[in-house]
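Deliverable D5.2: sample structural annotation.
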Amino acid sequence: MKLSMDSPAANIAEQIADLLVAGFLWLLCSLPVVTIGPATAALYYTVVKVVRRKRDTVTSAFFHSFRGNLRQGIGLTVLYLAYGAVLAAYGFLWGRLGEAAVSPYAYAAAGILLGAPFLFTIVYIFPVLSRFDAGMARQLQYALHMSVGHPLTTLVLVLWLAAVLCCAYLFSFSLLVLPGICAFVSSLLIEPVFRKYLKKEREKYADSDDLPWYLE
């Protein structure tokens, strides 16, 4: 008996293989650190286009997105690294001065206000980069608008990212499989949000069969 390549088992196996390859490409292209942003955008783009929508191949889709978003992605990566450094410095000072502060609650509240934009937008910004053509300021605006407009989705995405990072920290070998899985699960939450912002684009097509992959 032969296994049909159109069987559910074969399709799932193909998806898993594609996720592993996409995750490996993400790891490889993230090594310079400043390229984590464009690599993450390329990973999300590949997972949605190839794994979920079955268009193109993993390597072709990944490097198409990576090259196209390289310059802007590096800029966003540096911005978020700098932001993260500020938050880390604030946390360090809190640990040293928090108890001696006149109002530790105010200090903590200020830290939450400072960190919220980072946490809420980081789960959207690189998927936004992978999908929308706009300047950095506009893409940051999109990410912030989506995070505020869909608070429950944002909360789940932040918790999911935190869980993935904890797992990667505790089990370093999991980095071989986590990137693709993280992007896949995140896309299940982010794509419905994107569809709301692309409603007018979808209405331009009378027949749903004519929709490009990113509007399906």
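Annotation notes: The CA atoms of residues 19 and 181 lie 7 Å apart. Residues 8-215 form one domain.
The annotation will be released with the project's public dataset once the embargo ends.
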